[in-house]
Amino acid sequence: MIQSVDSDTEQYVETKKRILIVDDEQVFLEQLKDALEHSSLDLLIETARDGIEALDKLQVTYHDIVITDLKMPKMDGYELLREIQKRYPSIYVVVITAFGTVSGAVEAMRYGASDFLEKPFNMDTLELSLTKIIRQQEILKENIELKGQVRQYAEGLDQMVGSNPNMQKLYEQIITAADTDLTVLILGETGTGKELVARSVHSRSDRRSKPFVIINCAAVPENLLESEFFGHEKGAFSGAISQRIGKFEKAHTGTLFLDEIGDIPLELQAKILRVIEDGRITRLGSNREIELDFRVICATNRPIGDMIKKELFREDLYYRISVLPIIIPPLRERKDDISLLVSHFIAKYAKKLGSNVKGVSQRAMQQLLAYSWPGNVREIENLIQRSMVSTRLDVIECFPDFGGVEGEAENAPVGIMNEESTIWVDVGEGAKYHTIKQSMIEQFERQYFSHLLKKNNGVIAEAARESGLNYKTFYLKVEKYNLSKKRSR
To answer: What predicted TM-score, i.e. pTM, was given to this entire model?
Structure first.
């Protein structure tokens, strides 16, 4: 049984379709099983002598399609159909019978059968029926995956948190990249959110309704990488007992995200370069070129420049994939966003974790600000989740198992928090009222105007209208804080 790597889930999944044949005639069962096993379809076949045995097998192992007779002892085909529709509505059922009538066919269809064949039937007819069903299942699966991607895009955009100037620059780069179809290279440390940025570019582009296909180059075994990229034909190599579609083909008309491209072996890089330049792939074991339409977004946390010098990464491939480079700042370079991230993750996980936490103490905030965050946003997200689970208070007092450095609480920032944001100001020794007030106003304005611009895709006129301010006043604030903007659509 061939298995393939699904890089989106980093698990091995079967490519064969499972078929269960149900009939009380043993000779017919064996003949049909043998015929299907030698057909052009890639199937795993099981058999059952009656409806009860069939339901027992379905309870143990999921099957894609059931082929069943109608006249059987113990439980006939109609009752089996009803039970399958009730318990496993995603399973398609083909009814075969020697007692075919129009009324019988209508009744079977009413109970949920996908097709109705009369014995004796031609194997080509059955193969055609199964081929249509398998294609319908693939289309349904693609639609479900696409709907899941749409939800992920919406969630991904909401998770991009930060008003730091470095983040404002990042937002501008995303908008610029989304307006073109050029190749993008996202550079950032582990945990900075490279996939989130890639999804954001795709979801704002003209390809937003098309597939967004991910391949984690570091997660796929090296001997499977070429097949994973380009696919293979049946018999292309030992164990290739069925055709397989590669990630480039799956991304046709959409976007292919090559995560951790720096981990691709040198000998495979030349083939990747050629495909990106020509827009054509050839499956392993085939001589036929397939022309495709796709956009490529790449990402890595590795020092590509050093790898080129050491001849571990092709210089020509680097120039081809880095037409539009996007650099994600590490969290240590935008610590003024930590309070926003804390608020965001507390709001995000409060309901999911059943937590009453509303914020963090001065002491806890100082720990967060003093830490260097080698794991970046992913690390702070994990820390907040753990702390929300472990505390029964409405404020996280401190992070006892955290690697940050604790300081004196009296010199820590004070937080003023609502559901959307937190403003932190230094009230250490010698702090003056007007200084503190001005600092709070500026933080509030930066967060407020940044939020409205992001919500309105950088269009000042719409953001100003929502704020209740006139265009000129809003524009001057945007200029003051150097925020990302567009004058019109």
So the answer is: 0.56
- Position 436 confidence tier, pLDDT thresholds 50, 70, 90: low
Whether pLDDT at 293 is above 90: yes
The average confidence (pLDDT) of the chain is 82
Three-state SS for the chain is: CCEEEECCCCEEEECCEEEEEECCCHHHHHHHHHHHHCCCCCEEEEEECCHHHHHHHHHHCCCCEEEEECCCCCCCHHHHHHHHHHHCCCCEEEEEECCCCHHHHHHHHHCCCCEEEECCCCHHHHHHHHHHHHHHHHHHHHHHHHHHHHHHHHHHHHCCCCCCHHHHHHHHHHHHHHCCCCCEEEECCCCCCHHHHHHHHHHHCCCCCCCEEEEECCCCCHHHHHHHHHEECCCCCCCCCCCEECHHHHCCCCEEEEECHHHCCHHHHHHHHHHHHHCEEECECCCCEEECCCEEEEEECCCHHHHHHCCCCCHHHHHHHCCEEEECCCHHHCHHHHHHHHHHHHHHHHHHHCCCCCEECHHHHHHHHHCCCCCHHHHHHHHHHHHHHHCCCCEECCCCCCCCCCCCHHHCCEEEECCCCEEEECCCCCCCHHHHHHHHHHHHHHHHHHHHHHHCCCEHHHHHHHHCCCHHHHHHHHHHCCCCCECCC
Q: Is residue 2 part of a domain?
A: no
Point out the domain boundary residue: 416, 446, 462: 416
Is the domain of 234 the same as that of 349?
no
Q: Could you tell me if residue 150 is inside a domain?
A: no
Instruction: Write out pLDDT tens, residues 120-155.
Output: 888 888 988 898 888 877 776 665 555 555 454 444
pLDDT (mean) for 406-433: 47
308 and 374, same structural domain? no
Among 21-35, 79-93, 151-165, 406-420, the range with the most confident prediction by mean pLDDT is 21-35
